[in-house]
Amino acid sequence: MSTHRYVVALTGGVASGKSAVEARFRALDIQAYDADVAARAVVEPGSEGLAAIAATFGNGALDAQGQLDRAAMRRRIFDDPGARKTLEGILHPLIRRWLHDAVAADTGPYCIVSIPLLVENREHYAWVDRVLVVDTPVATQIERLTRRDGIDEALAIRMIRNQSTREQRLAIADDVIVNDGDEADLDHAVQAQHARYLKLAKLR
């Protein structure tokens, strides 16, 4: 799979501020294609993804409207690593194809692909040119999660531990934006990366 577009993969831990960074690139007229959006798109009613899930997990995977019953599927995969692997085996290739097609159709100078689980799936995204990591101290992540999701600290820590570590993310980073609180700093950091990516895309 190759794309001629200059592609920057954006990643970061839960509550690191990926969405805030994505929004700032969008404000600069740079498209950001999000794996979370792709994950919903590939299981729309009538999609090959939804058909495959129903065929594999039975009609209990669908709600009364024939849509994916997310709560039911979450319960099924929560305690069953085998079911989780099966579901990921259906969804991940479809998500990757959706993102790749979106990038291939993009007409901007460069574009962003937002992939929360990039560390875990790096080999599948060999077609991205650079990796931008939004980095946040773990203490800040915990504070944001407890405030944003109304959860306790123990659950916040569990959510963070469920993902790759901060060190693993930084190890694959070409560029890093530290997001530890100041909105103006975040604006400047995104502007600086934007200028760099415009240059790199031109050199391409």
UniProtKB/TrEMBL annotation:
Family in the record: Belongs to the CoaE family.
Function: Catalyzes the phosphorylation of the 3'-hydroxyl group of dephosphocoenzyme A to form coenzyme A.
Subcellular location: Cytoplasm
This protein's name: Dephospho-CoA kinase
InterPro entries according to UniProt: Depp_CoAkinase, P-loop_NTPase
One GO CC term, this protein: cytoplasm
Coarse class of the protein's main subcellular location: cytoplasm
NCBIfam families reported for this sequence: dephospho-CoA kinase (TIGR00152)
EC number: 2.7.1.24
Keywords linked to the UniProt accession: ATP-binding, Coenzyme A biosynthesis, Cytoplasm, Kinase, Nucleotide-binding, Transferase
Keyword Secreted annotated: no
Reaction(s) catalysed by this chain's protein: 3'-dephospho-CoA + ATP = ADP + CoA + H(+)
Pathways per UniProt: Cofactor biosynthesis; coenzyme A biosynthesis; CoA from (R)-pantothenate: step 5/5
Residues at which ATP binds: A15, S16, G17, K18, S19, A20
Biological processes per GO annotation: coenzyme A biosynthetic process
Gene Ontology MF, one: dephospho-CoA kinase activity
